[in-house]
Amino acid sequence: MPKEVENKFLIISDEWRDFIIKSIPIKQAYIYTGPPLAVRVRIEPEKCTLNLKKSIVATTREEYEYQIPFEDAKELLENFSTGYVIEKIRHIVLYEGQRWEIDEFLGENLGLIVAEIELQREDEQFQRPHWLGKEVSHDTRYLNTSLALYPFSKW
Questions:
Q1: Catalytic residue among 30, 84, 95, 142
Q2: What is the pTM assigned to this prediction?
């Protein structure tokens, strides 16, 4: 079963912007959010996906993702989602040979910027960039499922 091991951090400076290799606008919404399961639809310029995740621990999830047609994704997002639609720009950052995903949120989550690194194992070591702030991997408020139900602008 595919697993995702992801650590999440706040950002303390804009220096990460010097390392951007690609930026992707994303719209996503949740069809179901109930711990430990989540079902998400996502629309990106080049693909649309339906994603199923099950939390194992705070940083590890079992995950399945399937590409779906744009029209299906649009209908799911508009008619089957709960909570707020999450809008963000995902910046792919390469730093010290490691790939980071920096999510710069828009809409109801405007002002929130979160860095994520996906690891092979929970105990894997990685180079911590100087622009990283507090780790929030264990703070459920920063999960996208939480942001869809209780956005950053309402904290």
A1: 30
A2: 0.91
Rounded to 5°, the CA angle 142-145-149 comes to: 95
To the query of whether residue 32 is one of the catalytic residues in this protein, the response is no
Residue-wise DSSP of 42-53: EE-SS-EEEEEE
| 68-87 per-position pLDDT tens digit | 999 999 999 999 999 999 99
b/e sequence 3-39, b meaning 16+ C-beta within 10 Å: eebebbbebeeeebeebeeeeeebbbbbbebeeeebb
Q: What's the token pair of residue 140?
A: 């459920």
The fold for domain 3-154 equals: Hypothetical Protein Pfu-838710-001 (2.40.320)
